[in-house]
Design a protein that fits this description.
Number of domains: 1
CATH superfamily: Cytochrome P450
Shape: globular
Strand content: 5-15%
Number of strands: 14
CATH class: Mainly Alpha
Structural class: alpha+beta
Oligomer: single chain
Largest sheet: 5 strands, mixed
CATH topology: Cytochrome p450
CATH architecture: Orthogonal Bundle
Mean pLDDT: 90
Distance between the termini: 60 Å
Low-confidence stretches: 164-169
Length: about 425
């Protein structure tokens, strides 16, 4: 039980502030939350049409929510609103059941498994680049979306995406299913259940993530049901696909506008790789490449904010949070806060030198969440992002196309409205 030792009331938005920012609340949620944090401090109470929300932007307070007091919170209603998609997978499950699932799902993400995954990541990126031509204009958001989906389908299911699907310019496809079309979830579910049944019948183990999940055992010796396997697989597929897509697409966007960062990236790739494809063994030497990725996730975090619901009266930073309230933490707000970063809105990968990550408070930078529920695919994602960028940047450079304009479109993730169109040039 969480013991309440203090009863301070958090700062609350005034009616005057709300009236002055009505347009932002409607049209620019990111700027509105940023103003709330700068005006009212690290924790502020926001009443939105009867919904009690507490915006937390102090890194120490966030550590309390995600770390020390995590048992006082569950995932918020936003994620629980999609039971048909995520089922009872790691993203939405709670309590002892979540903990047992986390333990079973962890081994496929151990570092020793990454070498095999990394070969797929590089090979598929190289395959995609054979379709790129100097002088053409491409939407790298779509390209990265297809690429990360192809990689996931192989590492997760051991399934190759046919070349015809890889070249489809209309949308993102998996198993021949248009993921932007109607009834896609039902169709994907049918394919996933068929794969699971075929694996059980054959007894084969191709070494992919699905096989490892199927072999994992609970303490009583039982294994996951078909339904639970489906829930874990679809969670990994949907969550891992979108976030990696966005980091790579936004990285292309920033490098197109920061030639000094692109030059430093190329210098490192030339020195370390000398024209060959990157491997997992190169990662310790690809330091600046990693800084580029980290800076993208700082300035344009793919998940720009998320909530937790209090399941009991509790205390954060000495402030009382009532049961049922939503605590909202925004990577967008915290990653751009001058309390933690010099020139926070400037894209500058060099800021990560001299061990900035170790000097920052732990939750001043949290693109993968934190605490016991930190993203299970964190290591997988970082390997994928660095290797894909290293492969891309060795062979092509790009500039932003004049049309259509790139706009921020924050939904559950930070999407690029209109895509990100670039003009390619050979190195």
């Amino acid at each position: 039980m969480n013991v309440i030792t203090q009863t301070r009331t958090p700062p609350r938005l005034t009616g005057e502030f709300l009236m002055a920012n009505m347009a932002l609340m409607r049209d620019d949620w990111l700027t509105f939350l940023t103003r709330c944090a700068h005006e009212y401090g690290g924790l502020v109470h926001i009443n939105l049409l009867g919904i009690q929300m507490y915006l937390v932007s102090d890194a120490d307070y966030i550590e309390e929510v995600l770390g020390r007091r995590h048992r006082s919170f569950i995932k918020d209603k936003t994620l629980r609103a999609f039971p048909a998609v995520y089922g009872n997978g790691l993203l939405t499950s709670e309590g002892d059941f979540w903990l047992s699932q986390r333990r079973l799902a962890q081994p496929p993400f151990h570092r020793e498994r990454m070498a095999a995954y990394s070969e797929v990541m590089v090979a598929y990126t190289e395959r995609m680049l054979t379709t790129w031509r100097a002088g053409e204009t491409r939407d790298v958001h779509w390209d990265m979306r297809r690429l990360t989906l192809e990689i996931l389908s192989k590492t997760l299911f051991g399934v190759e995406v046919p070349d015809a699907e890889a070249q489809d310019q209309k949308g993102s496809r998996l198993f021949g299913i248009d993921l932007d079309g109607e009834n896609w979830l039902q169709a994907v579910d049918q394919v996933i259940f068929n794969i699971i049944r075929q694996r059980r019948a054959s007894g084969q183990n191709p070494g992919d993530l699905l096989s490892m999940l199927m072999e994992a055992q609970y303490d009583d010796g039982t294994r996951m049901s078909d339904q639970q396997l489906r829930d874990e697989v679809i969670t990994l597929l949907m969550a891992g696909h979108d976030t990696s897509t966005l980091v790579l697409a936004w990285t292309c966007y920033f490098l197109a506008q920061h030639p000094e960062a692109e030059a430093k990236l190329l210098a490192e790739l030339t020195s370390v790789l000398e024209g060959r494809l990157p491997t997992m063994g190169d990662l310790p030497q690809l330091q600046y490449t990693e800084w580029v990725i980290k800076e993208t996730m700082r300035v344009y975090p793919p998940v720009w904010g998320f909530g937790r619901e209090a399941i009991e009266d509790c205390e954060i930073g000495g402030y009382r949070i009532p049961k049922g309230a939503t605590v909202f933490m925004s990577e967008w707000v915290v990653h751009r806060h001058p309390r933690y970063y010099d020139q926070p809105e400037t894209y500058n990968p060099d800021r990560w030198q001299a061990d900035l990550a170790k000097r920052l408070p732990t939750y001043a930078y949290f693109p993968f969440g934190g605490g016991p529920r930190v993203c299970i695919g964190y290591a997988y994602s970082m390997v994928e992002l660095v290797l894909i960028l290293a492969t891309l940047a060795q062979k092509f450079r790009w500039t932003l196309a004049p049309e259509p304009p790139v706009i921020l479109k924050p939904g559950l993730t930070l999407q690029p409205g209109n895509g990100i169109h670039v003009v390619l040039a050979n190195r």
